[in-house]
Target: SDR family oxidoreductase
Amino acid sequence: MAVKNKVVIVTGASSGIGRATAKLLGESGAKVVLAARNEDKLQEAVAEIKEKGGEAAYKVTDVSKREEVKALVDFAISEYGKIDVIFNNAGLMPNAPLSELKNSEWDEMIDVNLKGVLNGIEAVLPHFIKQKSGHVISTSSVAGLNTYLGAGVYCATKHGVKALMEVLRKESANEKMNVRTTTLYLGAFRTELATRITNKAIKERIEFLYDTIGADPMIVAEAVKFAIDLPEEVSMNEITLYPTAQL
Ligand SMILES: NC(=O)c1ccc[n+]([C@@H]2O[C@H](COP(=O)([O-])OP(=O)(O)OC[C@H]3O[C@@H](n4cnc5c(N)ncnc54)[C@H](OP(=O)(O)O)[C@@H]3O)[C@@H](O)[C@H]2O)c1
Model:
């Protein structure tokens, strides 16, 4: 089954990659449920999809809270009757050297970037197992494949997402769940990700990177749509996208 009529949850849908993906999928005939914390931005994004004739709804959700993610999946099922795809995309990147001991930022990255993905998997898996189909898509990063100065905790969360998704793929095959998995390893895309960085030098460096070579998040949306559109018997397990000019 292609994108059309699939019910897709997108987390981190209030801006950047999640918003672009929700828009493209909505315009392509999916029934999209947008999730994030900022209600005004979610309302705006849903209105934009509906204006183009798409079907979309939103639910304010903090992905670090297990019960809220379960409620999000219940909401999608009550609105549209089923759930086919979850795009675990919410994340933040307040990078700083470990020596700055910004432990509340460490906790938040672990809770959102890693635990948020796990919460998404936990919430959809019983439904996917029952219906013997489903697709889990999660946003890692090139920081899930490499390590960078100032990105110790961010890299740890994104390597964690890689490990979780790889094991989910294997266990799905082993247990005949028929769940497809796709992990995104992304280089620099022009989004609001740098706004949460509190280390001035790192913030300026990332903003400069986005301003000079950052790619359009709609390209990620196209890749996600492609992965969903593939025949059910194949899973595009990994997608790595760098701007051509990025080292
Ligand atoms: N942009 C890049 O270059 C790049 C590269 C590699 C990987 N990534 C990854 O791509 C994903 C999307 O980021 P982006 O670049 O699109 O940045 P963004 O524009 O800052 O979007 C981040 C999204 O995550 C949401 N979010 C943050 N904390 C949340 C929480 N506790 N619960 C629910 N939603 C939450 C934000 O919404 P609210 O604030 O409204 O909750 C927002 O919608 C992240 O996982 C990021 O690590 C980005």
In short: The domain at 7-241 is CATH 3.40.50.720 (Rossmann fold).
